[in-house]
User: Fold these one by one.
Assistant:
Number 1:
Amino acid sequence: METMQEIENQKQYIEKVRIQNEGKELKYYILTMGCQLNENDSEKICGMTEKMGYKLTEDYTQADLVIFNTCCVRENAEDRLFGKLGELKKVKEKRGTIIAIGGCMMQEKHITEKIHESYPYTDIIFGTHTLHKFPEDLYKILENKKKLQDVIDIDGNVYEGIPIKRTSNVKASVTIMYGCNNFCTYCIVPYVRGRERSRHPKDILEEVNLLAKEGYKEITLLGQNVNSYLRAEKWKEQGKEYKGINSFATLLKEISKIDGIERIRFISPHPKDFTDDVIDAIASSEKICKLIHLPLQSGSTNVLKTMNRKYSKEQYLELVEKMKAKIPNLTLSTDIIVGFAGETEEDFQDTLDVVKKVCFEQVYMFIYSRRVGTPGDKMENQVPEEIKHERFDRLKELVESQILKNNQKYVGTIQKVLVEGPSKNNPELLTGRTDSNKVVIFEGDLSLKDKIIELKIVSEHMWYLKGIII
Ligand code: SAH
Ligand code: SF4
Ligand code: F3S
C-alpha cells in the first residue's frame, strides 16, 4: 500500500515537471552500463523521463538532461564513467545540461565522494533503491537548482507501476526479483543491490499478459539468482501461493500458459539452486528456450570454495549431465572469471577441462577485478595481472575453437528464427535469432520483421550463421 502511494506521489511530480517543460522541446540522453537488470531499470528511467516531456537524443552535446545508469561489477566501468563526466563539463557550461547519475556505482561511498570532489557540476546522484523517485529528484533540481544526492543503504521496496519505455516491440525483459543473498566473494552486487526481494506473481503475470496483448513474442525473466524466486518472501512461508505459484518452476509453468508469448528465457540461475522441478519445467514447455545460461565462474573446486559458490567441479558437471539427459536439444552458455585470488595453474586447468567437457555455446569471460568491500579484495594471494591476461587469452582461444565446432552442427538444420530487422553490417540482409540465441543472417522481405519463421542454415561463421527461407 505504502509503495502504491509512493508511486502515486511520483506521478504527481511527473505531472509537475511536464507542465514546467511544456512547449520547450527538451531532449535527454541516457547511457546504460552493466547487465540486463540495469537495462530494464533504464527502460523505467526513460519511461518516467519521457512522461516529463523529454525526447530521446543519441547526441549528448544536444541534451538538456544527461542520465548515466552505472554498473560497478568490474573496474573498467569506473574509468568509463569518469571519462564521460569529464567530457560533460563543457556541454554543461554551454547548455546548462542537467547531469544525473544513478545505478549500482552510486551505492558506493568512495565513488560518490569522488564525484562530489572532482565532478561537482553533477546535479543528481540517485541509487538503486531510489530509482522510482527520479521525478521528485528532477523536480527539486528544476525548482532549487541545488545539487542533490538521493541514495539509501537499506534494502528498497518493490515498486509496481513505474512508467516504462521498452527498447523493442517484440522482445521484453521482465525483472522478477531484485537483490542477491549469495555473497560470492568476488562480487559487489549484494552490497549495491541489497537483499533478495521477489515481485508478487500477480504483478509479473499481469505484466507478461499485457506484453502478450501488445504483441511481444519473447520475454526474458531477470534476477541475480532467478531460481531462488520467492524464497525470501514472508507471505510464502505462511504456505500461501498465487495461482499455484510458489517457486521459480511454478512461475515458469504459469508464464508458459500465456497465449502470444512464444519464447521464454531467463537469466541468471545459480547452479546450486537448479532443482529438478526447474529442469522438468524447462523440458516440458515448448516455449522455454533450450539455451540455458549456467554460470560456472571457475572449474576448480578449490577456487569455487573460496568464491563461496557452494558447488564443486563434479557437482557442476553432474548437473550438466542431468540437464542434458532430461532436456532434448539443450545448449549452454556460461560466465567464467579468470585469475581470482589463489587461482593456480592447476586450478585454471580445471576451468579449461570443464569448458572442454561441456562445450558451451557461448562463454562470457572476465578477468578478475578486485572490488572494494568484498572478501575477495582482502585475500592475500592475488594473481599478478600478466598471468591473469595470459590465462584469459588461453581460455579465449579454447572457447573460440569450440564456438566454431558448435556452429558446424547447425549447418543443414532447420531453425526457428525471430526476425529482428535489417542487419547492421549489411542492411540488404535481415537478421534474427534462433531459440539458442544465435544470430542468423538471410535474404528476405522487411515485412518478416517481428515474426518467427523457419530458416535452413546453409553456412556458419564465427559470430553468425547464414540461412535461407524454406
Ligand atoms: N548474478 C549473476 C550475474 C552477476 S554479474 C550470476 O551469479 O551469475 C555477471 C558476471 O560478472 C558474473 O557471473 C561474473 O562472472 C562476473 N563478475 C562478477 N564480479 C566480478 C569481478 N569482481 N571480477 C570479474 N568478473 C566479475
Ligand atoms: Fe554476484 Fe554471486 Fe549474487 Fe551473482 S549470485 S550477483 S555473482 S553474489
Ligand atoms: Fe552491474 Fe549492477 Fe548489474 S553492478 S552487473 S549493473 S546489478
Number 2:
Amino acid sequence: MQYRPLGRTGLEVSVIGFGASPLGDVFGVTDPEEGERAVHMAVDEGINLFDVSPYYGVTLAEERLGAALRGRRERVILSTKCGRYGVDNFDFSARRIAASIEESLGRLQTDHLDVLLAHDIEFGDLNQIIEETIPAMRQLQKQGKARYIGISGYPLRPLVRVVQAVPLDVVLSYCHYNLLADDMDAILAPVAEQFEVGLINASPFSMGLLTEQGPPEWHPAAKATRDAAKRAAEYARSRGADLAELALRFCFDYPRAATTLVGMVTREQVRKSLRALERPADRQLVREIHAIFGDAFNSSWLSGREENQ
Ligand code: NAD
C-alpha cells in the first residue's frame, strides 16, 4: 500500500480509502457478513482510511462499520460526518452537531473520531457553516472527540469559499475528479494546497457510472452522461479491459489528492482496488475513453441550494 500525507494533519492515509456508504445499502441490498469481511480484508491489506456518515442508510452504515471495526479501531483513521441525516434532512446548528457526534461515537463504538466533516455543505447556509458549524466542530476537537475537522460537498465553489474563509484540516470533494471529470484539479486543489488543507477525492466510479453494472436509479447524471458511460464500458470491454479498473487507477495516480475513497462492500471489490493499484496504467485507452465521453466530460448536475451552485 502507498500512503500520502493528509494536509498538515500529520496523518498518513492510504492511497485507497474505504468508502463505507455501500455498507448502508445505498447502492442496493448487501450481505452484512460479506461487508464485514471486506472491512477486515481492507484493514489487513493496509487500507487505513474509513469514511462513513450518519446519512448512509440512515445510520445503518455507521452501525455496520462500527461492528466490523471492533478490535481493529486503533489500526484505522476513522472519518464520519454531521449535518446531513436524510435526502432532505439537514441541520448544521451547533446544538445538532454536538448531539450528532455523540450518536456517531455510539454507533461506531469508539470514544473519538479521527476526522469529522460537515456533510454536503451546499445544502446549508454557508454563513452558518462558517460562523456556527465549524466553530462548533472546533469545540468538539478541543474536547478530544474529533482529532481533525473539515467539510464535504459536490459543487466546488462553496467548498472553495469555506476553505478560504475559515481554518480547516480536510476537504472532501466527490465526482469532480475521475475519468469523467477533472475540474476539481483546477478549482479546488490549488486552494486546498494554498491553505494546506488535506484533499480527499471520492467516488472514482462517479457513484457507479463508470462500472459494468452502471449507476443506481437515483443517480443524478443526465441521460447523455449515462449513455456515454455505458458506451465507454462497452468500448473498454471490447479492448479486453474493465472500465472500473481503469477508473480506479486514474484516480490513484492523481498526486494532489491524499486518497481516493472507493465505495466497497465485498472482498472481491477490495481485491480489485488493490489490483488496480498494482497494474500499469493504460494511458492510450484512457485517451480513447475520453474521446468517447465528448461533451459529457466535466458535465455536472445541480446539488444543494440555488445560491450555492
Ligand atoms: P463510487 O464511485 O465509489 O461507487 C460505488 C459503487 O461501485 C458501489 O455500488 C460499489 O459496490 C461499486 N464498486 C466497488 N468496487 C467496484 C469494482 N471494482 N467494480 C465495479 N463496481 C465496484 O461511489 P461512492 O461509494 O458514492 O463513493 C465512495 C465513498 O466516498 C462513499 O462510500 C463515501 O464514503 C464517500 N463519499 C462522500 C460524499 C460526501 O461526503 N458528500 C459523497 C460521495 C461519496
